[in-house]
Write a structure and sequence with these properties.
Bound molecules: flavin mononucleotide
Order of helices and strands: HEEHEHEHHEHEHEHEHHHHHH
Shape: globular
CATH topology of the largest domain: TIM Barrel
Radius of gyration: 20 Å
Largest sheet: 8 strands, parallel
Structural class: alpha/beta
CATH class of the largest domain: Alpha Beta
CATH architecture of the largest domain: Alpha-Beta Barrel
Number of strands: 8
Distance between the termini: 47 Å
Strand content: 5-15%
Amino acid sequence: MEGVIDAHTRDLLTRQPGFDWTVTEFVRVVDARLPPKVFLRHCPELDRRVTTPSGVPVALQLLGSDPAALAANAEQARKLGASAIDLNFGCPAKLVNRHDGGASLLRDPRRVHAAVAAVHAAVGDEIPVTAKIRLGFSHRRLALDCAKAAEDGGATQLVVHARTRDEGYRPPAHWEWIGRIRRHLSIPVVANGDIWSLEDYWKARTLSGCRDVMLGRGALADPWLAPRIRHWLATGEQLAATPWQARAKVLADFAALQRITLPDRIVTSLVKQWLNHMRQRDAEAAQRFQAVKRINELETLLARLAQPHEAPAHGTLEPA
Ligand SMILES: Cc1cc2nc3c(=O)[nH]c(=O)nc-3n(C[C@H](O)[C@H](O)[C@H](O)COP(=O)(O)O)c2cc1C
């Protein structure tokens, strides 16, 4: 996920068992073959057998519309050691769509096919080519055609984010639509969109009929969501809700990793950005976010987050 799931975040999220694979933020392909440093920036794991430190494989994602340019860059990525190429046909960003990338290709399934087929031809069967789509651009009428186009082009797996581009990130995700697509494909289909809890996970699986799901924002909101699902599948037991101290530890570890290369000012905003994701689904994280959102000094921020209890906002204990 662009701007939020870099190699450090992938590392932290995969330290507990739960994820089978992860994917990089998209590498934007326009027309030129990009230099190796761009691929290494997006996917430092290329230097480490393309897995996170705990051994979870990382697919390298490309976003673009020109089949020849995608093919040249997929070939470049393969030479650098990429072990899977994922193609992004889901990005709803206006800037990306205006430049004819991401979800804009869903308006014409032939273009999805051309992109996947070109990349498949470039990397051969040496490494898998996978694709990620939404249900369409402004309607769902081409959902199945786009999915089949990806399969016919040579994709070995398809992730479906169960909303159209125009639906953005607005709930609900239409998981039952993924089921309609899945029934017509022979490659594995992975369900994605709005999986925030164990209950959502089960509902998404049931309605889509998919064996596997992809977690996005839910994994940032609760870094234990994937382990929670894995644990439940293995034992039938539900893990307790993730306590604040565990979240604070993830944020502190994240800051320590980011500080190796980034100035504290940037790390401070990155920590707040992750906390902002956590607060979407957790009352304590929401309270903590309110308490620290104006802190601009990293040490102060981390010290405050590490406090066992956040003091109530100033004045709330004043006698009436
Ligand atoms: C900030 C942000 C950045 C994203 N960047 C990417 C990306 O680079 N590649 C991609 O395939 N999807 C990207 N997505 C989409 C997510 O992977 C996912 O499909 C979407 O958020 C729905 O799943 P969720 O409800 O579990 O988050 C991004 C989403 C967000 C919110």
